[in-house]
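input
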Amino acid sequence: MSRIVYKIVPENLWNEARKTGVFQGAPVDLADGFIHFSTAAQMRDTARLYFAGMSGLLLVAVDGDALGAALKFEASRGGDLFPHLYGTLPLTAVVSEAPLPLGADGLHIFPEDNA
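output
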């Protein structure tokens, strides 16, 4: 069973990654020196705290095991361990991509909300 980690990313940045097969990171990732991910339990809070009211986003699920030792779980918000990728994200590790639209309440609608 692989460890799935999630990246919330603006679709325009992801479209650039599709052209090259590699995601270099969003501006915050480049500034921090690693690509920020969330676990399934963390992704809703990440969306609420850092992407509030933003449209045009995708939820990208990634096979964490495919990233090897470059993926590290480190203490961050509230002491929780968050997955951080020290390197670029090869799109070959992507398991799925889904739109992350805004609901009428201003919160993002996750794929499982429609299930």
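quick obs: The mean pLDDT is 93.
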